[in-house]
Amino acid sequence: MHQIIIIGSGPAGFTAAIYAARAGLKPLLFASSVAIGGELMNTTDVENFPGFPEGVQGPELMQKMQEQAERFGTQVAYEDVVDVDFSGEVKRVTTGDGAVHEARTVVYATGSAYRKLGLPDEDRLSGHGVSWCATCDGFFFREKTIAVVGGGDSAMEEATFLTRFADKVYVIHRREELKASKIMQQRAFDNEKIEFVWNAEVTAIHGEAQVSGITLRDTVDGTERELPVEGLFIAIGNDPRTHLVHGKLELTPEGTIAVEGRSSRTSAPGVFAAGDVIDPSYRQAITAAASGTVAALDAEHFLAALPAEEPAAAL
Ligand SMILES: Cc1cc2nc3c(=O)[nH]c(=O)nc-3n(C[C@H](O)[C@H](O)[C@H](O)COP(=O)(O)OP(=O)(O)OC[C@H]3O[C@@H](n4cnc5c(N)ncnc54)[C@H](O)[C@@H]3O)c2cc1C
Q1: How many distinct structural domains can be found in the chain?
Q2: 40, 81, 187, 229: which has the fewest C-beta neighbours closer than 10 Å?
Q3: 180-189 pLDDT, tens per residue?
Q4: What residue's CA is closest to ligand 1, atom 30?
């Protein structure tokens, strides 16, 4: 029986592991079998994580977080969690190899996935002009011409924010009207750096080392044309990775795991959630890391409050 199992190997999971390990809880962390290290593995320069004045590559930052967690005794298992049972005092976590792991507490830090366009060069050019996060990457597009795909509030927000840096921002939308709220739309319409391209979808992204342009297909007449841009921001939605906990943990209307106030406490006692999987708004590495801290401390307090007759030797 473990005292704490952590599911997820992004900034939230590894930070929870650092705290739990330093508290002597010997965490077992499931990192996934393929997507180890979380979303920052998909990017290049990270310039907004404190402590790295020259910036740091996303994969290097995650490697350092893992090393720091392991240094204090975290056991990292390269397995996918495929099922969870949070119904009893003993939490059960099943991994892809069929093993069932038991723990007094669980930190659920599985992150969230940005929706992709599904184009062949999208992943290859991620961090090289293709981005899902204006807050993270807008700064790299000073005086450039870029495009934002999407028609909702987040697309309008990203496009408007990006005009602080870029000279020109095309908003590509597959229909003739936006889903975004009227106020967000108006803000974008009023911005002279933003030009809307209606009834258009991106069918290809071009560029060797860096994005150099996109192909647009007219959704009405099917004609195609090239648009030279140096950046492509994809703002078509984000899905918290909650499929394993549907019906087991309470979710918010946005689809994130519901937590109590500023804590990480979920609707199941002893289960704590952290990072992008609870966060519909901020979704940054540093906020995820901070959230991992909260989860580890909450788990620690939960364990400390367990009745004294709990068989400590079995933990
Ligand atoms: C392209 C890109 C660039 C970004 N750039 C920046 C930036 O410059 N600065 C910044 O602050 N933020 C940036 N972000 C945002 C940042 O990456 C996220 O906010 C942060 O990684 C969220 O951390 P997390 O730990 O909550 O989740 P994630 O990083 O998503 O990690 C979750 C982990 O859990 C694993 N997992 C999920 N389900 C299971 C399961 N069932 N079993 C085992 N493991 C599982 C996943 O494989 C993943 O490794 C960027 C995001 C993207 C996509």
Answers
A1: 2
A2: 187
A3: 889 999 999 9
A4: 111
Residues spanned by the domain of 80: 2-113+238-305
* pLDDT tens by residue, 16-48: 999 999 999 999 999 999 889 999 998 888 999
- In short, whether 30's Cβ falls inside 6 Å of ligand 1 is yes
Residues 6+ apart with CB under 8 A from 47: 55, 139
Most ligand 1 atoms within 8 A of CB, residue of 6, 40, 66, 114 to mutate: 40
CB 10 near ligand 1, within 6 Å: yes
Q: What is the DSSP string of 35-72?
A: -TT-GGGG-SEE-SSTT-TT-EEHHHHHHHHHHHHHHT
pTM of the model: 0.89
- Say if residue 124 is in the same domain as residue 207: yes
Residue nearest to atom 19 of ligand 1 (CA): 284
Domain membership of residue 88 (yes or no) is yes
> In the annotation, is 136 catalytic?
yes
* 220/243 same-domain check: no
Residue 313 is assigned to a structural domain of this protein: no
What contacts 290, CB < 8 A, 6 or more positions away? 15
Nearest CA to ligand 1 atom 38: 110
pLDDT in tens, 86-142: 999 999 999 999 999 999 999 999 999 999 999 999 999 999 999 999 988 999 999
Give domain status of residue 312, yes or no. Answer: no
138 lines ligand 1 (CB under 6 A): no
CATH code, 291: 3.50.50.60
Burial (Cβ within 10 Å: 0-12, 13-18, ≥19) of residue 54: exposed
Q: Which atom of ligand 1 is nearest to the CA of 95?
A: 42
